[in-house]
Design brief:
This protein is α/β, with parallel strands linked by helices. It has one domain: Purple Acid Phosphatase, chain A, domain 2 (4-Layer Sandwich). The chain is about 25% helix and about 30% strand. It has eight helices and 21 strands. Strands 1, 2, 3, 4, 5, 16, 17, 18, 19, 20 and 21 form an eleven-stranded mixed sheet that branches. A six-stranded mixed sheet has the order 7-8-12-13-15-14. A two-stranded antiparallel sheet has the order 6-9. The radius of gyration is 19 Å and the shape is globular.
Length: about 350
């Protein structure tokens, strides 16, 4: 089987990373990928006095996660998510420092607005790849500001659209809720993408967005669809989504991939109804298509699914993607996507 320039993995978290392992088939896939990129959904907390932020779920991990990332041969991770600031800016900064010591690029968090939005650059076969990390999901204290460290966040204004007659026929229907990203945040994002486009040959946006709780995480929200198109319009060559903790369908807009959610690469321990499956998008930069592989977490091990056609969840994923006009060819071990 052939090699790939880059493999994008989903959300990665482990409370006790020393217990994690990677299956043999997944190891073989990673050996065929020149670059491996993921979303690190947790701070590495080394300060025993660090206190969690006041929020519904505060995550943390230990420096052992670095060994797991090295086992994956990770090239880069986005820190733009709703958990990197869970134990405050000191732990977030420690995380960035420890990653860089291991020569793992990180982005989407910074001491200043410019630093948080600063793209990272990785290179493969002489092609420069710009990686931009942003999130629409964050606690207010986690947002980077002029003189305060934090994540590269896009503020989404939640709107309720009420038709007085319709709400009587469909009371409490979730579809009356909409969202709109603040214009000034879109301007920051546009600038970051254009700067990355100027300095790189290929630009990937990793974005944390949508709803994370079941059953609403199955739905691609309207603002997510619009934001995905915006990212392509301002120069992204691919959009990689995360946060819903489940696999969502892929789309192709103006010849560019928009993956709404890769799901979890590994989330250990699995919490509640959270999905134990995720997607890996494997791509060669000079080719318009991509291959979609799927992983499953069984207790502390993550491994490739070996027959995508026999899995009901993936059959539904294929159906939903093809409703978007994306044809997925069943290759047995993965889906192949051709883009004209």
């Amino acid at each position: 089987m052939g090699e790939y320039d880059i493999c994008f993995c989903g959300d990665l978290y482990a409370e006790e990373p020393s217990k994690l392992s990677i299956g043999e088939s997944l190891k073989a896939l990673f050996k065929r990928c020149k670059l491996r990129v993921a979303n690190l959904e947790t701070p590495i907390v080394i300060d025993p006095l660090a206190k969690p932020m006041n929020k519904y779920s505060a995550l943390k991990t230990t420096p052992d996660v670095l060994k797991f990332l090295k086992q994956m041969q990770t090239s880069a991770v986005s820190l733009a998510n709703n958990h990197i600031m869970d134990y405050g800016p000191k732990s977030a900064e420690d995380t960035a420092r420890l990653l860089r010591q291991e020569l793992i690029k990180c982005y989407g968090y910074g001491q200043t607005i410019d630093e948080a939005y600063q793209p990272a650059t990785v290179e493969v076969r002489g092609v420069k790849v710009g990686l931009v990390g942003v999130t629409t999901t964050f606690a207010p204290e986690a947002l980077v500001k002029k003189n305060k460290p934090g994540v590269a966040g896009l503020t989404v204004i939640t709107k309720i659209n009420i038709d007085p007659r319709e709400v009587l026929e469909e009371p409490a229907a979730p579809y009356i809720v909409g969202g709109e990203v603040l214009k000034e945040d879109l301007d920051l994002l546009r600038r970051a993408i254009k700067e990355s486009k100027r300095d790189n040959d290929f630009v990937a946006a990793q974005i944390h967005w949508g709803a994370g709780l079941s059953p609403y995480n199955e739905v691609v929200l309207d603002y997510v669809k619009g934001l995905g198109e915006f990212l392509v319009d301002v120069g992204c060559d691919i959009v990689i989504g995360g946060h819903p903790h489940t696999i969502q369908p892929v789309n192709v807009y103006k010849g560019k991939f928009v993956t709404y959610s890769l799901g979890n690469f590994i989330f250990h321990p699995i919490m509640g109804p959270m999905e134990n499956k995720g997607m890996i998008l494997a791509k060669n930069l000079g080719e318009p298509g991509a291959d979609l592989y799927f992983v499953e977490q069984i207790e502390n091990e993550v491994e490739l699914l070996d027959d995508v056609s026999q899995n009901p969840k993936l059959a539904y994923f294929k159906y939903q993607s093809e409703k978007n006009g994306v044809h997925l060819l069943d290759e047995g071990s993965h889906f192949s996507v051709k883009v004209s």
